[in-house]
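2024-03-11 09:14:02 DEBUG pipeline.ingest accepted 1 chain
2024-03-11 09:14:02 DEBUG pipeline.ingest length=417
2024-03-11 09:14:03 DEBUG pipeline.predict start
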Amino acid sequence: MRNKLVRKITSMIAVAAMTMGIVTGCGDAGAATTADSSAKTETASEAAPAQSVLENAKGGKILYLSNLSSGAYYDYYMAFYEKACKDLGYDFQVIYGDSFNDPDGNLTAVRNAYTKDVVGIIICQDGGVSAIMEEYPDVYVATINSDMDAIFNEDGTSHAALSSDHFLGSIGDGYISGEDLGKDYAQEVIDKGFKRVATIIFPIYAYPKHTAADAAFRATIEEYNKTASEPIEIVGDATVLEFKPLGADYFMEADHQNLDGIAAFCAGTQFVYPTILEAKGTGTCAANTVLLTNGFEANEDLFADSGDDEGMTIGAVTIADPEAVLWPLAMIDSAVQGVMYPDWTAPERIDSGVITMDTTAEFQAMQNNSPLWEADLSKLSTSWEDMKQYMPRYNKDATYADLCKFVSGVSIADYAK
């Protein structure tokens, strides 16, 4: 057992040292569904190629301003966008955003990569969106996996982007609402029968969603306690991680030595899990403490320690569904080609589908069937060829409502097959 723990700890510390990623509903479009997102069909290798309805498609370059430089999501996004952009007739180039999401740093990254043939930018960093668009007003922009909701508020630094006809909107990393995220985690705690829990978040200046999630988590537990025969105790205030792993001294504190669960709204698979393993190995953390968190790491030891079997350390993980990758590309392509969705009226922020793994079978399903494991696009629950039916260049009846329904409707059931 000790050797197994050491092997896991070593592996996870290596993962935590990698560049950190963002961790992170349509408006009333009201169009009839023309493509059912629940119908999962053949893989990309089996599907017949979709035919474009455009006589003269436009080309150009699409930049991808990434918040990652490694990891499962990075590898998958790169594989998808490289394939899709080539298929659509675009050049594709990845550039890297500022590690602290600094607006000036993000703008500089775009400046260094910009050439006159750039027609669109897919942005994973919220910082500096308005500044980028002010400097390049003819380039279409859509964001994905961006969590800094506050920057789009009335007094936010990128609020002006919402009034730009070249800003196409944003799809979140799962829920864009911290309140929804907190309620989900609270329900996991209730369902699992935990009685003593603690919470961990990233700082509010970078992730205001986490602070909102923590508040909603506490409010939901408080409401549950009003009628519960045995109330749930939330130990202390949320611990704030400044983008570094949880310290070993966390479990030296008396309140943290006998926890049933830890709700880590931060990227807990990278920043919390290794510390829990080490503490369990030294006996400073209770052997039955379970982590609820987010973040997908293609790590066999981590998945072997995840699920609802006795002795598992990770009890639940939420991630954005892989198919959300389509949304910003579909929006940019439609705008560039001049075939924008007829029911799209203004940029908005929408949820991606939220995949929750909280049983051993579900973790195994995502390991075996998900394109996130080895950036294997043949394992998409909906193939790239079938995704094209949500794009006006391939389907003259495609609607924005259908696109949003598709990317927000994928769940664990689509991979647990």
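2024-03-11 09:14:41 DEBUG pipeline.report The chain has a mean pLDDT of 87.
2024-03-11 09:14:41 DEBUG pipeline.predict end
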